Amino acid sequence: MPGKDRPNARFHGRVEAGDRLCEEPGCDQPGEFRAPPLEGSGASGEGPGRYRWLCLDHVRAFNAGYNFFNGMTPEEIHDAQRPYAGWERETRAFSTAGADRPPRWADFSDPLDAIGARFRERMATERARADGKPLLPEDRAALRVLGLGVDADRKALRARYSELVRKFHPDRNGGDRTHEAALQKVVEAYQRLRKAPAFA
Asked: Is the predicted pLDDT of residue 46 greater than 80, yes or no?
C-alpha cells in the first residue's frame, strides 16, 4: 500500500528494532516487542523500570506464562476479581484529599435559582414522611401522578382520586376520550397507594 510507513509490521505492537536485539539471554533476534521490566531492574520511586524489548517468540512465551495473580493471597485474588474492583477508589476529579478538591456549590453563581430550585424540589420529593411510614420509589412515583405530597393521608388520597376521575373519565366530560391514558395512570397509582403501608 503506497505511503504505508511499516509495510512489514504484521503483528500489533511491533516496533522496528533497528540494531536493537532481543533482551532474552542468548537470543540474537531483533527486539521488536515491549514487555514489562523484570522486578528490580531499575524501578524507582518515580515509576517502573524501562521496558524490555523481546523478539516475537520470546514475547509470546512471556505472554503465555504471565499470571496477573502471581504472588497474591487467596483474599487478594478474591478482591481483585470482584465485579466492582477498583470502582471504590476516588478519582482525582472527585477526590476529597489533596489539591484537586471539587468546587463547593456555594461557589457557583445561580442568579435564576435554576440549580437551587431543582435541588430543593428533589429534596422535597425524596424526603421521608413526617409520620415515619415507609415510601418505596414506586409509591413516590404514584404520588407524583396524583399530584400529592409525601405526607398525604388516606383521606387526601381518596379525595384526589375522585377529583381526577371526574376530570378524566369520558362519562363526566361529555364523552371526551382523549384523557383515557391519563385516567389509566391515575387508577394504577391509586390502586398501588391504597395498598401501600403509608396509607394503611
From this structure: no
